[in-house]
Amino acid sequence: ANGRLYMGAAINTGHFSEYNYSTIAAQEYNLATAENECKWAATEPNQGIFDFDPCDLVMNFTLEHDMIFRGHNLCWGSYNPSWLNELNTYNDLSNALSNHINQVVSHYGSKNVIAWDVVNEALSDYSTGDDWEYKTSTWYPMVPDFVNIAFTTARASCPDCKLFYNDYDIASSSGWMKSKSDAVYSFVSELLSQGIPIDGIGMQLHLSMNFGDFDGIRDNIQRLYDLGLETHFTEIDVACGSYPDYDCPTWGETEEAIQANVYEQLLIICLNEPGCTSFETWGFTDKYTWLTSEDGTDQHPLPFDDQYVKKPAYNSLIDVLTQ
Question: Disulfide-capable partner of 117 in 85, 166, 288, 308 (CB 3.0 to 4.6 Å)?
Answer without folding.
Answer: 166
